[in-house]
Design goal:
The structure is a homodimer. By secondary structure, the first copy, chain A, is α/β, with parallel strands linked by helices. The first copy, chain A, is built from seven helices and ten strands. The first copy, chain A, has two domains: about 110 residues, Rossmann fold (3-Layer(aba) Sandwich); about 130 residues, Response regulator (Rossmann fold, 3-Layer(aba) Sandwich), CATH 3.40.50. In chain A, strand 4, helix 4 and strand 5 form a beta-alpha-beta unit. In chain A, helix 3 runs parallel beside helix 4 and helix 5 packs across helix 6.
């Protein structure tokens, strides 16, 4: 960016609509030339949508990364989340698991798409998932839902032999909690994450997960904005491919 | 249906997941040949999705009407809800309204699509909607949100001269409340509904709304199921067109 004579402003919304609003107002006032946004709670109604519309009206290029606000037609660059959820689930089915739990985030678009991938994997194998094996959380209920899952496993309230986690952070939390309570990974419970974060590669973790080409995504996003500013033509959206990364958290 | 040797079972979920589950279990146990479903709270996670998957696995034709569960790839027959929201909003813009409120349902897919249509209409006219003019409700908060809207209008907390309502029932409720409090329709407030229900045609109402070909939709849904059963081939999905019906609730 700097090479091209642009400077970067970074702002964090803390996944919170009030903070997001402040960021957007600040950026509009500072006369920014382009915006890359990672949507806040993309699957619940966002009271700030009109701000995004304002960027569009002022012809300020705006790109959404990772998640999308489905109500607006913003261009996006994102991982193929349906494929990610599908791969994680299919991998466990191929390993012979029948009872596969899912822990997913329900207030963002990515969580919904990864869940769709989970459903598709079962359907393509002509199997049926069990509703009671699906744990959904939102930003506020995250910890209580994760702890509930752990408790259900420990008390044998569910008989799952494997679990697909929304992301590596969730997988990491689950693994640590389960191990502390005497559930061996992967012998008693196989765990798959999604997004190949640093957490998946810690020495005592070694998590099977799906790839998430963050740097590529960042590079593409920056190029998208530069190209859109300089050509004056909105560049096309792009869905990035993903694949499974086999490590040792699955039996 | 009867002509073709089939009988009809009708079940209502009261827009409630527990009731929906009971219906689905009952139908699976009775060995039904096909299912037409109007999804329950289609924009929040539905713990009964696995039941729908079970129908598919057992090769029982299943069609969703009106709303859709986006996570599953069920075939559907539905009104073009984006177009409906777009037409209702565009009609008001064309009449010269600038400050147009929206009251929409946020826990179903139709509400989200109609809102998308509202956004699109502003965008296509190169105008920006105002976040504070958008009122979203779910099944539980409906009445309190509607009353809040009425209060904001009466106390002049918002300056909207027109409102797009999720459906005619909402429009009817709003009109009656506003009129009782001295706000004249359409002189002080223009109102557009969506779905051309019986409520829109009452003598003292005469609501401008969008068409909703319910009978056609029902007929197409029945034919879809019959054809899918008899040909063994899943028939294609269909989006039905809609148009604006001008009456006298808009100035």
């Amino acid at each position: 960016m700097r090479e091209n004579g642009y400077s970067l402003i970074l702002a964090s919304t803390n996944n919170n609509h009030a903070d997001e609003r402040q960021c957007l107002e600040m950026m509009l006032n500072q006369g920014i030339k382009g915006l890359i946004v990672e949507p806040t709670k993309s699957n619940v109604y966002n009271p700030n949508l009109s701000y995004y519309s304002l960027f569009k009206q002022r012809n300020i290029p705006i790109l959404s990364i990772n998640a999308q606000y489905e109500e607006l037609n913003l261009p996006y660059i994102a991982i193929d989340d349906i494929k990610s959820g599908h791969l994680a689930t299919k991998y466990l089915i191929d390993k012979g698991h029948e009872d596969i739990a899912l822990i997913t985030k329900i207030d963002d678009n990515q969580g919904k798409l990864r869940m769709k991938g989970y459903f598709n994997a079962f359907e393509n194998c002509n199997k049926v998932f069990k509703s009671e094996y699906i744990y959904t959380y939102d930003t506020e209920s995250k910890l209580s839902v994760l702890d509930q899952f752990v408790e259900h496993v420990v008390s044998k309230q569910i008989q799952a032999s494997a679990v697909v986690c929304y992301n590596d952070q969730i997988a990491y939390y689950i693994m640590k909690k389960l191990e502390k309570l005497g559930i061996a990974i992967p012998n008693d419970m196989s765990v798959v994450g999604e997004d190949n974060s640093v957490l998946s590669k810690l020495e005592d973790v070694d998590l099977t997960t799906t790839s998430h080409p963050q740097e590529l995504l960042g590079e593409k996003a920056a190029n998208w904005v530069l190209n859109t500013i300089e050509t004056g033509k909105v560049q096309p959206s792009e869905l990035l491919d993903t694949y499974i990364i086999e490590r040792s958290s699955v039996k």
